[in-house]
């Protein structure tokens, strides 16, 4: 039993770790989605074509994708503190470079540094949830994490558009870079990797299970174990198809699509993406909590992804509806997208606790690989049909061009739903073999 002082210390350290790391995660979402709101400014500043604009936005996703598995290895072996602190510093420098860039190449280099820095935040956040909280709350906590992280995505939509009336996009990114540097320093001084570092038991130990200790032995052996597990890979495809389309659409192409196909102003289009991302945030929390309460993963996941695919079919049809209805549809689409977030819980539960970082990083790679592929691919598909029209230095695409781009993303969403059919039901607990192996 813990004393009152120990309980207070555990609660304080847990809140500190959660608060600082989730703040860094919020910044990662802001950087991920901001190009959609400043697409016009970026196109004018760097005279960028659709494929160049998509490539600039996707630079973040390239490095983010490449870093997911290494991040899983690092948090399982070195711990969260050093990884998040270093990531904050790198992202801060990248944001400063991006905000002061005078060429497309320099802007891409800055965005690459940003992607490198923030690429560690989500897997580190999942590790915090696994180490500092009880297993039975993991789905709810992961949903809460995504809910809070999406504050950054929401800030990158309509609020960023409003802010651009008061400051330039360059000033915004310089200020964010300075904040990121301060956040990295705070993480280094105040975050602890796990309760055992200060002599406290973890929630798993209090329940009589083995603690979430760092992986013992070679990291290559642990990673190989995760990769050989077929149950790990089942969650990769919903992550690729559903997470990838969300990041590509909300992160770049949604605002231009709504402006050029449905005649909305940028502020109106940004309202739609903000509502979509808010729906995703709320859905992640509520569907995660519902999954924990029902002790089921697959039914909740599949229901969400069916609705998500149906929303893509509506976008593909390009049917213009009253604004209130289109806002509602975007909110529903965002809410339904959250079904794919349960793949992180499943990946953790079909592998040993000590390998939770590596397991979640493997499936998380899918979402960012999807975003990295789709942002420039959609631009390439639309550039192929572009008729040469320009307006204030920005390419204007036809409805047919956008239908081709939306068709590509609809296919990816369908792939995600098909992949979800093969996800193993874990009943919200570690598999018996994984837990037995951990405690041996």
From TrEMBL:
Keyword field contains Transmembrane: yes
Keywords assigned by UniProt, alphabetized: Lysosome, Membrane, Transmembrane, Transmembrane helix, Transport
InterPro entries: MFS, MFS_dom, MFS_trans_sf, MFSD1
Species annotation: Sulfurifustis variabilis
Keyword Transmembrane helix: yes
Pfam family, one: MFS_1
Reactions performed catalytically: L-histidyl-glycine(out) = L-histidyl-glycine(in); L-lysyl-L-alanine(out) = L-lysyl-L-alanine(in); L-lysyl-glycine(out) = L-lysyl-glycine(in); L-arginyl-L-alpha-amino acid(out) = L-arginyl-L-alpha-amino acid(in)
Domain Major facilitator superfamily (MFS) profile: from-to ranges: 12-431
Function comment: Lysosomal dipeptide uniporter that selectively exports lysine, arginine or histidine-containing dipeptides with a net positive charge from the lysosome lumen into the cytosol. Could play a role in a specific type of protein O-glycosylation indirectly regulating macrophages migration and tissue invasion. Also essential for liver homeostasis.
Subunit record text: Homodimer. Interacts with lysosomal protein GLMP (via lumenal domain); the interaction starts while both proteins are still in the endoplasmic reticulum and is required for stabilization of MFSD1 in lysosomes but has no direct effect on its targeting to lysosomes or transporter activity.
Descriptive protein name: Lysosomal dipeptide transporter MFSD1
Major place of residence: membrane
GO molecular function ontology, one term from the record: transmembrane transporter activity
Subcellular location: Lysosome membrane
Residues that span the membrane, as ranges: 12-30, 42-66, 78-98, 104-126, 138-166, 172-191, 233-253, 302-321, 327-347, 359-382, 402-423
Residues forming coiled coils: none
Family to which the UniProt record says this protein belongs: Belongs to the major facilitator superfamily.
Highest taxon of source: Bacteria
GO CC annotation terms, alphabetical: lysosomal membrane
Membrane topology: Multi-pass membrane protein
